[in-house]
């Protein structure tokens, strides 16, 4: 009788683990940290090295911009705040400038290559 209970408990545990492991994959990694509130203190542009957008339509409850600082900290901000809009515009223009500079360097190298035929 004890062996039947042990087998039944083992099977039940295996089924639960199977279901829970698939559920976790459907919602993304378990170590995903969501912003739950926004900072009110604007960040200086020079400390920001990047950002991502958090959507309330996915796993997290609020929309947010998550800035990554040079000290590897994450700072949550509202996309509606004026200082956030300004920083996003500056980052966007910086990215466009880098893209244009990179493309022009590539074109310069290509046009100065004497072995290439048109």
From TrEMBL:
Please give one Gene Ontology molecular function term for this protein: chemokine activity
Cite the Pfam families for this sequence: IL8
Q: Which residues form the Chemokine interleukin-8-like domain?
A: 31-91
Q: Keyword annotations for this protein?
A: Chemotaxis, Cytokine, Disulfide bond, Inflammatory response, Secreted, Signal
Q: Which InterPro entries match?
A: Chemokine_b/g/d, Chemokine_IL8-like_dom, Interleukin_8-like_sf
Give the highest taxon in the source lineage.
Eukaryota
Record-level GO BP terms: immune response; inflammatory response
Q: Where is the signal peptide?
A: 1-26
Record localization: Secreted
SMART domains associated with the record? SCY (SM00199)
Under the cellular component aspect of Gene Ontology, which terms does the record hold? extracellular space
Protein name in UniProt: Chemokine interleukin-8-like domain-containing protein
Source organism per entry reads: Aldrovandia affinis
């Amino acid at each position: 009788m004890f062996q039947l209970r042990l087998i039944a408990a083992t099977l039940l545990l295996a089924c639960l683990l199977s279901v829970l492991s698939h559920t976790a994959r459907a919602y993304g990694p378990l170590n995903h940290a969501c912003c739950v509130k926004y900072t009110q203190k604007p960040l200086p542009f020079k400390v920001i090295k990047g950002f991502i957008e958090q959507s309330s339509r996915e796993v997290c409850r609020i929309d947010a911009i998550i800035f990554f600082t040079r000290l590897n900290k994450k700072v949550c901000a509202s996309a509606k705040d004026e200082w956030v809009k300004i920083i996003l515009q500056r980052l966007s223009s910086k990215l466009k400038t880098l893209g244009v500079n990179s493309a022009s360097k590539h074109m310069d190298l290509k046009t100065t290559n004497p072995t290439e035929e048109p």
